Amino acid sequence: MIDLHMHSAYSDGENTVIELLEKAQINKLEYISITDHDNCNAYIELNNIDIHKYYLGTIIPGIEIKCSINGRLIEVLGYKFNIEKMNKWVSEFYKDKSKEKLQQKYFDLLYEKSIKMGLTLNSKENVAFNSKKDWASLAIYNEIKKHPENQTRVPDDFWAEFNTFSKKYCGNKEHILYINKEEDYPSIQEAIDAIKNSEGLVFLPHLFIYKWVDNPKKFINDILKTYSIDGIECYHSDFSEENIAYLKDLCRERNYLMSGGSDYHGKNKPGIEMAIGKGNLKITTDIVKDWINR
After folding, report:
1. Residues near 2 by beta carbon (within 8 Å), at least 6 away in sequence
2. For the chain, first and last CA: distance in Å?
3. Domain positions in the chain
């Protein structure tokens, strides 16, 4: 089994790199990739530890880059890149856009927008949020859910799941919670170029989770028609069997490479476990045989 999509504490995951390795070993995973958001810090750490003390499988360099497309944010995954080249690009692109500054900006905006929605929140200084390590949208979501009276003030799906809150509402241009982040992140073309210039492969992850997309299949086909993509993440914790089958057929028909991962974050995304997702995943090595050792 494999898991090529997981996050450490270097982005929005709970676990340290060593904890991820130990968990991967317990799960007997043959291949893993730590795909932190917009940084390669996990791989800098891996260069300085004896990996085989914790994990005996193979680690594929990975990164998940948040990027803009038509005023919205999506992600692309990079695999098998030159770590030094990718780290140089990340350092240059984000040199004036530290996570701490961006998350504080988003936290302040989301707090004020939530108040305007009529939601009950503690005073700003009493909301659990550390801009150095926390993600603003998750902090605001957790704060909203601390106040039961808010449940009757928002749609059911808003209340039920962080991904929906984040993708459908914070990512919806028509919703009060929308924040335009285009200026803070690379365009999708810039992200693709960064991965390819670092000798990596470009994959599109979790294509069915963007809640603001009215027609997911058209959205997928438009991206594939417009941009040079190497592969698609066909397995993800939030995918139905129908989603998985559609993407696998698409890859076979159009000659795209396949990947898959749980998108594991530890307690920061409850209910998603490494390797098995929500209990719906069993990703075998045969789906990556065309590229994993190339």
Report:
1. 29, 30, 31, 32, 260, 261, 283, 284, 285, 288
2. 19
3. 99-181
Residues 202 and 65 sit within 8 Å (Cβ to Cβ): no
* pTM for the structure as a whole: 0.84
- Give which of 72, 73, 132, 122 is closest to 102, Cα–Cα: 132
Element holding 43 (H helix, E strand): helix 41-46
Edge to edge, what strands does the sheet with 2-6 contain?
A: 2-6, 31-34, 58-59
The C-alpha atoms of residue 191 and residue 201 are separated, in whole angstroms, by 11
Q: Are strands 72-79 and 62-69 parallel, antiparallel or unpaired?
A: antiparallel
Element (H, E) at 59: strand 58-59
Please state whether beta strands 31-34 and 58-59 pair in parallel, antiparallel, or not at all (unpaired): parallel
Residue 71: strand, helix, or coil: coil
Query: What tokens were used for 275?
Result: 């390797």
pLDDT in tens, the chain (294 residues): 999 999 999 998 999 999 999 999 999 999 999 999 999 999 999 999 999 999 999 999 999 999 999 888 899 999 999 999 999 999 999 887 777 888 999 999 999 999 999 999 999 999 999 998 888 999 999 999 999 999 999 999 999 888 889 888 988 888 999 988 888 999 999 999 999 999 999 999 999 998 888 899 999 999 999 999 999 999 999 999 999 999 999 999 999 999 999 999 999 889 999 999 999 999 999 999 999 987
